[in-house]
């Protein structure tokens, strides 16, 4: 049978289809995603859960006049397929291909750019109020419906609640589709998740809601406060019917649910009602993460977590592909930084009873699953709530604990004021362990961890360090836990250098770097991965007859001023290398330090330029921005040969 999907070039092609055809179309979208993502890799389980939601929404709405916002956007592949990107889906996340999440630049149907969680409802309130404002003022903006689709995981982010609070207050006519599958990347956590589970897993509530096809706009508000005045029987029956949404009702939102998120007809009935309402409405939808892919759907919580994302070539003919055998005699792969960090944090927690690990919904992503398995009472997952992760850490530190908040560099951005106001100003012993620092690759600009050096360096009391390899990470974690006051420890995504790990970690002297290799006219001072890049450049230059000095700064704050001054004094050119933005970054810190000491050096700063870097394989991104040994070597050669350099060639 030919695919209906091949006749869908845009959302309007859905408008005339029957419920049955739409149901079939959703399944075709699912198969298309399984086949494509199984081959090229990418976000997986969440997308299989939203096929019917995307079909139902686009069948009822006129996108882009009507606005559909996908929170995070990792579950927006069905939306991409239905909005003209069916044939380009195989390029998603690849260099030059479709963006990993929704992107305003990519399609008029991607209303907001995203990648970080919990932003859709706030954006939606702004969009709808923007339309109302334009109508009041006679401005040329078209009115349309606004729908935010948000997962139960993303709902744990506080900023989503700020938006609910605002929209309830304003009475903004908009719809939130709460896509509840009980999962974040790992099983969802906390009281909110328990509340959702109580509703979603209660078959009575599904039954109670069947056939509710009218009256949504007439829902009473503030019903909870009136419960107590009702007789016990009436009270119980009303409660069974209304209680699931009481939380929302009390905030002046209408609630409808629980709707089967894989039944297109049921979804369309509920959504049509919600879209017609003249007030904020939440439609609570139950979906299955990994729907239609047996290892996820039938693998319980573990299966769903395992298939949050699929690796390239991990699926063949709709089933997991056989593992490819390793070539005989192949050297063992170097350990990942995340693995080393997770194992060492566990060891440090065993050594020091004050150590506590905190994650914001990224337990295996940060390696904290090891701590969770072995010392569960020393492990906390706060949900997608980075701000709370740090406030919680601050409170723990005040009580004498040594909290280690393991948060990706990019997600830490969300908790900036907690770092400034609640940790640094109070000079608390909190370790910020920033995984995925640097360019992360195919997750792209929303996820590159390139700002942390610049945004943390300006904070008083802060100590910043970055290891050049996994052995140094072990020493630095010990250093961070030994130090009194806030510490930021950044390390990259992916494999370490393959060096042996130390038996016993050493606490480094804070603010000291080390010289790794002595050379002539040029000195390279690297930070973190910048050291390896510097060594690569040094090898290339040595082969071309130019010996250069290479040093590891180890700390971006405090800078080893003595080392920097020595390198500047003994060389014609000082080159700083960092995997972070140049504006306000490590190289700038070196320059400031030397300038203040009255030794303005001839300095070449290598790092991330002042623009957002796209998505794609890290190697390609590094080439694009010149973060390679070869490119650094070329720039050094050019600088050394440049007679205009004030100190070169003296
Ligand atoms: C601020 C922020 N923190 C962490 C993440 C990483 N992350 C991406 S998807 C996800 C889980 C989202 O769960 P949910 O919203 O329930 O969607 P599901 O994948 O279950 O459909 C997390 C934690 C993020 N994108 N943004």
Protein model, in words:
With 650 residues, the protein is an alpha/beta fold. It folds into three domains: 4-310, Thiamin diphosphate (ThDP)-binding fold, Pyr/PP domains (Rossmann fold), CATH 3.40.50; 337-490, Thiamin diphosphate (ThDP)-binding fold, Pyr/PP domains (Rossmann fold, 3-Layer(aba) Sandwich); 514-641, Rossmann fold (3-Layer(aba) Sandwich). The chain has 26 helices and 21 strands. The strands form five sheets. The protein has a seven-stranded mixed beta sheet with strand order 11-10-12-13-15-14-19, with helices on both faces. Helix 22 crosses helix 26 (629-641). It is globular. The model is unreliable at 211-225 and 646-650 (pLDDT under 50). The chain binds thiamine diphosphate. The site of thiamine diphosphate has 23 residues, from helix 2. Thiamine diphosphate (TPP) binds next to helix 2.
CATH level-1 class of the largest domain: Alpha Beta
Q: In CATH terms, what is the fold-level topology of the largest domain?
A: Rossmann fold
Bound ligand species: thiamine diphosphate
Uncertain stretches: 211-225, 646-650
User: Termini distance?
Assistant: 78 Å
According to CATH, the homologous superfamily of the largest domain is Thiamin diphosphate (ThDP)-binding fold, Pyr/PP domains
Arithmetic mean pLDDT: 93
Our count of helices gives: 26
How many domains, in number, for the residues? Answer: 3
**Largest beta sheet, briefly?**
7 strands, mixed
How many β-strands, per DSSP?
21
Task: Output the strand order for the largest sheet.
Answer: 11-10-12-13-15-14-19
Instruction: Examine the secondary-structure arrangement and name the CATH architecture of the largest domain.
Output: 3-Layer(aba) Sandwich
Strand % is 5-15%
Characterize the overall form: globular
| Sheet/helix structural class | alpha/beta
Radius of gyration: 27 Å
Helix content: 40-55%
């Amino acid at each position: 049978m030919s695919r209906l999907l091949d006749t869908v070039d845009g959302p309007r092609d859905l408008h005339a289809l029957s419920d049955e055809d739409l149901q079939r179309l959703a399944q075709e979208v699912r198969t298309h995603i399984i086949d494509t993502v199984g081959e090229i890799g990418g976000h997986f389980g969440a997308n299989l859960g939203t096929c019917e939601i995307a079909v139902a929404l686009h069948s009822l709405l006129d996108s882009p006049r009507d606005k559909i916002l996908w929170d995070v956007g990792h579950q927006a592949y069905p939306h991409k397929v239905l909005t003209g990107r069916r044939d380009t889906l195989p390029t998603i996340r690849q260099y030059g291909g479709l963006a990993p999440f929704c992107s305003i630049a990519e399609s008029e149907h991607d209303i907001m750019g995203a990648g970080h969680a919990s932003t859709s409802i706030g954006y939606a309130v702004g969009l709808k109020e923007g339309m109302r404002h334009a109508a009041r003022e006679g401005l040329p903006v078209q009115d349309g419906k606004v729908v935010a689709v948000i997962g139960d995981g993303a709902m744990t982010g506080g900023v989503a609640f700020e938006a609910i609070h605002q929209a309830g207050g304003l009475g903004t006519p908009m719809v939130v589709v709460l896509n509840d599958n009980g999962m974040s990347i790992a099983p969802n956590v906390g009281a909110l998740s328990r509340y959702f589970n109580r509703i979603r897993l209660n078959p009575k509530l599904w039954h109670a809601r069947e056939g509710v096809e009218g009256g949504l706009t007439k829902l009473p508000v503030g019903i909870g406060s009136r419960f107590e005045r009702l007789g016990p029987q009436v009270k119980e029956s009303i409660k069974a019917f209304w209680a699931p949404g009481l939380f929302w009702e009390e905030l002046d939102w209408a609630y409808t649910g629980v709707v089967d998120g894989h039944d297109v007809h049921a979804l369309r009935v509920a959504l049509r009602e919600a879209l017609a309402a003249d007030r904020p409405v939440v439609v609570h939808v139950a979906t299955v993460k990994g729907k239609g892919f047996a290892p996820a759907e039938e693998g319980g919580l573990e299966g769903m977590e395992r298939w949050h994302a699929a690796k390239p070539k991990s699926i063949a003919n709709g089933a997991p592909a056989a593992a490819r055998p390793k070539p005989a005699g192949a050297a063992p792969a170097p350990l990942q930084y995340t693995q080393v960090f997770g194992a060492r944090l566990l060891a440090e927690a065993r050594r020091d009873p004050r150590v506590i690990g905190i994650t914001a919904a990224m337990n295996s992503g940060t390696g904290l699953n090891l701590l969770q398995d072995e010392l569960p009472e020393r492990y906390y997952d706060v949900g997608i709530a980075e701000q709370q992760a740090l406030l919680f850490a601050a409170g723990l530190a005040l009580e004498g604990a040594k909290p280690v908040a393991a948060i990706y560099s990019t997600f830490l951005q969300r908790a900036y004021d907690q770092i400034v106001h609640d940790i640094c100003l109070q000079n608390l012993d909190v370790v910020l362990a920033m995984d995925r620092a640097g360019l992360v690759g195919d997750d792209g600009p929303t996820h590159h961890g390139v700002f942390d050096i610049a945004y943390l360096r300006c904070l008083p009391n802060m100590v910043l360090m970055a290891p050049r390899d996994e052995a140094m990470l072990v020493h630095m974690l010990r250093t961070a836990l030994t130090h009194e006051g806030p510490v930021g420890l950044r390390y990259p995504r992916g494999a370490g250098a393959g060096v042996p790990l130390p038996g016993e970690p050493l606490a480094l002297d804070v603010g000291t770097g080390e010289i790794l290799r002595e050379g002539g006219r040029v000195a390279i001072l690297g930070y973190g991965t910048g050291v390896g890049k510097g060594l690569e450049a040094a090898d290339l230059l040595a082969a071309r007859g130019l010996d250069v000095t290479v040093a590891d700064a180890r700390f971006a704050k405090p800078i080893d001023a003595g080392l920097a001054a020595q390198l500047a004094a003994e060389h014609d050119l000082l080159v700083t290398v960092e995997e972070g933005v140049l504006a306000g970054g490590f190289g700038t810190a070196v320059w400031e330090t030397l300038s203040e000491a009255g030794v303005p050096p001839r300095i070449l700063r290598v790092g991330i330029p002042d623009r957002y870097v796209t998505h794609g394989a890290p190697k390609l991104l590094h080439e694009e921005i010149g973060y390679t040994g070869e490119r650094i070597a070329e720039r050094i050669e050019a600088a050394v040969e440049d007679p205009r350099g004030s100190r070169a060639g003296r």
